[in-house]
Amino acid sequence: MTPARRARGKPGTRRGRNVSVRRIGARKVATPKPVAEQAVALNVNGKRYVVTVPVRRTLADVLREDLGLTGTHLGCEHGVCGACTILLDGQAVRSCLLLGVQADGHALMTVEGLSNGERLHPIQEAFWDAHGLQCGFCTPGFLMTISAFLKETPDPSEEEIREAIAGNLCRCTGYVNIIKAVQLAAARLRLPTV
Amino acid sequence: MEETLALLAEYGSDAKLLAGGQSLMPLINMRLARPAVLIDLNRVHALDYIKDENGTIRIGALTRQRTAERSPVVAAHVPLLAEALRWVGHPQIRNRGTIGGSLAHADPAAELPAVAAALDASFIVARHGRGTTTPRVLSPQQFFVSYLATALEPTEILTEVRFPPLWRDGGWAFVEVSRRHGDFALVGVAAVLRLDREQRCRDVRLAFIGVGPTPVRMPEAESFVGGRTLDEGVLAEIWRLVSDRLQPESDIHASADYRRHVGGALARRALQTAASRAKGAS
């Protein structure tokens, strides 16, 4: 890919796109030509990144390889394990099942965005206190799933917690301590902030 | 929308439409699918809507499953869909997965095709030139062709699914058995019915998933239940009849015998639940 070609696509706009005009009957319809790379503007954890990426690269790979945000883990790469869960406009999604270019213009949050500097997020703290992790590989995905869940369900029952984390696999803890961690985090997050 | 249709006309079978990506992206990631051209629908907002039109619920193909699951319109008029959606994957999947995408993918173990089959939904299909003004309208029997195969031509797109309203006094149920919650169903059943004044079942429809290449309606069982009260004898007979008639295949997840057995048990459970929800029930 030459630098000239690379510069053609401008993030967030359609102007720079390579367009062909197709005549169907009396009408002309402009259709974009397929491209192999595209420039995207990503808002991750409140920070703006502009990168040119292969259009087939998954969002998880863009986060890890292009932005260096390796906290998002990849387990199965087909949407089963939940390790790559991030927030897209506040909703928990599998970043391995999105393409990087699809995130253009959306607000993303990864596990790196949870803590406030050295100070852990209450959910992270609860995982620490309740021993909600052992090897830690699945933890980023759990943390992001749970942060979206507790925003919607601040006072969940154990049954609701079990269902909420059903889409995240952990092979060490047996889930019992993860459930305890969610209960602890929920209780702490419900306290009025000082 | 016009641009999407023009792209499909141009690239046809070289192209795949990318909706929520919860089925196509795994196939691409595992190198099972390598489409030359990917057409991303996610910015075609014209396909994202839920409308109540004189009782018929029109759902745009790109409507997220999570949106439909939480829609008061869906809850009021297509409660069977709301109930089945809770069985689709996990919240993370439903946040991205779309109504049209799941139907067009046509996995024989997916939940939504059973809902469409039980409710006799209409599939609205557009193509460039024919446009959205004169779409093709297909029934579930026409739309679902085989395993992961539909009647959609390479240049066509599913734009909308129309659900006729459930009768005001109707009952419904969706039940399934899967290895873990969120997995595809080993067997699943969607049931709708009405009860008359004597508590006899009317207008019974049963649609099974996981037991054939497409959702399976079972007219024999439907007509057997029609006009009968769901007493123990009838329920036992339903179990036997459904188990006899189902012709599932064995696979790594479950044997054909197991699926037949569970299919009968689920049909019985779904009918009981549907009857208890029907307004005619005392």
UniProtKB/TrEMBL annotation, chain A:
Asked if the Swiss-Prot or TrEMBL record annotates the protein with the keyword Metal-binding, the reply is: yes
Q: Which GO terms describe its molecular function?
A: 2 iron, 2 sulfur cluster binding; metal ion binding; oxidoreductase activity
Q: Which residues form the 2Fe-2S ferredoxin-type domain?
A: 38-114
Swiss-Prot/TrEMBL keywords: 2Fe-2S, Iron, Iron-sulfur, Metal-binding, Oxidoreductase
InterPro entries tied to this protein: 2Fe-2S-bd, 2Fe-2S-bd_dom_sf, 2Fe-2S_ferredoxin-like_sf, 2Fe-2S_ferredoxin-type, 2Fe2S_fd_BS, Beta-grasp_dom_sf, Diverse_Oxidoreductases
A Pfam family: Fer2
Q: Which Gene3D superfamilies match?
A: 3.10.20.30, [2Fe-2S]-binding domain (1.10.150.120)
Functional pathway: Alkaloid degradation; nicotine degradation
Concerning PANTHER family, the annotation shows: OXIDOREDUCTASE WITH IRON-SULFUR SUBUNIT (PTHR44379)
Name listed for the protein in its UniProt record: (2Fe-2S)-binding protein
Q: Which organism is it from?
A: Candidatus Segetimicrobium genomatis
